[in-house]
Specification:
The structure is a single chain. With 315 residues, this protein is mainly α. The protein is 73% helix and 3% strand. It has a two-stranded antiparallel ribbon. Strand 1 and strand 2 form a beta hairpin. Helix 5 crosses helix 8 (179-204) and helix 13 runs antiparallel to helix 14 (284-313). It starts with a helix and ends with a helix. Mean pLDDT is 86; it is low at 15-24.
Length: 315
């Protein structure tokens, strides 16, 4: 027993010594060398701009000697943020984008889920073709997609409008009550395939034995889809929802392009458009404050949704 204990002690001591040797020196240098290409751009092009924007949001521009005096920049505390929250255009853009997200995100994710379930069923043929076809819109840049759809929305150019008017319908896709949903349609067309692919990948990881056992118990394809597949891929559905919330609050390209052919979209139509419009007026500090507020709202909504749904799903 004493010999065994002595040998065990030596093994532990030797292993510990090896761990200490491996934990420092050349190995640490190798780890740093591998991580530097990631962390250096991350710090320079992500953390530094964020920090600079936050700092700018606390500055204000003042003038000496009245309206035509020399201007200077000084620390203003939360003055810029107070102006953001007192801006009616900011709250209008938030309400508009909130309505957009409440309708567009569930519709898009529901369509993506149905498509993923259809592609996962063995009854559907040519799944590779349909998977690529559904994903193709995501390969189109957002600005190009918005330009393409603006052509289809334009009353003077659209063949769709001509066909609908030929059967007695007179749609106004760019009217005040429809232009928001026209932009939502562009976003849905762009991102449904992307979300579908995430859900479909999660479905592919489910063991086939679960389906076989369910079929032996008499479960139908419908029951397998909604009682087995959907609950298992709940983390993927939550993930795509979080991505969609973030993307909704970042909406810019679609309404900015449609604004060129519609007078019902103002320069402050969405929060991001408002930040850009303020920045083009040379009020960079106010634009920084708007951007920081948008980032905070995005974080609160996405993180809050993820925590709430994860608890309910038992994740």
């Amino acid at each position: 027993m004493t010999d065994i204990a002595t040998r065990a002690t030596r093994v532990v001591a030797t292993t510990g010594g090896r761990r200490r040797l491996n934990g420092g020196g050349p190995r640490s240098g190798t780890i740093v060398a591998f991580l530097t290409p990631f962390f250096l751009p991350f710090v320079l092009f992500y953390l530094v701009p964020i920090g600079y924007a936050i700092w700018q949001s606390f500055l204000v521009v003042r003038r000496t000697g009245g309206q035509y005096g020399a201007s200077y920049t000084t620390f203003g505390g939360f003055e810029q943020y107070a102006q953001v929250f007192q801006n009616d255009e900011f709250w209008s853009s938030i309400g508009r984008i909130g309505l957009f997200g409440i309708v567009q995100v569930p519709v898009m994710l529901f369509v993506a889920l149905i498509m993923a379930l259809l592609l996962d069923t063995p009854l559907l043929k040519l799944t590779s073709f349909f998977r690529i076809a559904a994903f193709m819109p995501y390969a189109v840049p957002g600005v190009i997609a918005a330009i393409m759809w603006s052509y289809l929305y334009s009353p003077q150019l659209s063949p769709v409008v001509d066909v609908l008017e030929g059967i007695g319908l007179h749609p106004d896709f760019l009217g005040p009550g429809a232009v928001l949903w026209s932009a939502a349609n562009v976003s849905t067309w762009l991102w449904t395939g992307y979300n579908m692919l995430i859900m479909f990948s999660a479905l592919q990881s489910i063991p086939q034995e679960l389906y076989e056992a369910a079929k032996l118990d008499g479960a139908s394809n419908w029951a397998i889809a909604w009682r087995i597949k959907v609950p298992i891929i709940a983390p993927s559905i939550i993930l795509t929802t979080v991505f969609s919330i973030i993307g909704t609050l970042q909406l810019y390209a679609e309404p900015a392009v449609l604004r060129q052919i519609s007078s019902n979209i103002s320069s402050t139509y969405t929060p991001n458009m408002l930040a850009y419009a303020v920045a083009t007026g040379n009020n960079y500090q106010q634009a920084a404050a708007v951007s920081v507020v948008i980032a905070l709202i995005t974080f609160v909504l996405s993180f809050g949704f993820m925590r709430l749904t994860s608890k309910k799903a038992g994740l």
